[in-house]
User: Fold this.
Amino acid sequence: MSNYNNFSPFYDIFTNNVDYKSRANYLLEIFVKHGKKPSLLLDFACGTGNFSVQFAKMGIEVIGVDKSEGMLALAAEKNRNLKNKVLYLCQSGSELDLYGTVDGAISGLDSLNHITDINELEKTLSKISLFLEEGCLFVFDMNTVYKHKEVLGSSSYHLKKRGVECFWHNNLKEDGVTVEINLNFTYKTGLFKKDTVCETITERAYTAEEIENLLNNTGFKLEAVYGENTFLPPKENSQRNVYVARKVK
Assistant:
């Protein structure tokens, strides 16, 4: 699993098309629909804190956890303009250790797909379950097998934003569910100078059956699965699904 440290300075540049406010409102709707608005929320794999910020603005206490020091450094900068500060912790999922329990948890933008070892993913879910109060919800999204096979595949992209060029190449592995993403960022370091940094990210898609079994094994009950940003069942060509899991034991 990549530590995202080389990607972190460019992450917000290349995800500025994501409407975090709208997505956070959607996630909050899920909490209310299936129970209640959380008062203390875990934002697992919080990255640069964009979801954490939105929930903090809603008056929710937020703990943001990520294993990337680079991403968390950028997230911490966003605390300066927040009345309700986010607590950020640098931890991996399998080593998650909070100060107490939370009454809600999220993980957004296919963060869990970055855990490509199924045993490591089970350990992560067990840790999230451990620190989530019984009866409360863990809401997360994951890329689908369809997206990895039919959309990401072995495609390539050339992106340019704010003077930063990104050469993006996907490599679909033989298992048909794991994609290696190679990113090369070129940016100006002076009037006539440029530099390039690289990041390799690997994501694995899990089947619906695998996800439900993992949840059952870690103290959760799968309560609902929605197509992204909807309250409708996923379609066969859905690229990212949203899972609502309730802590039951």
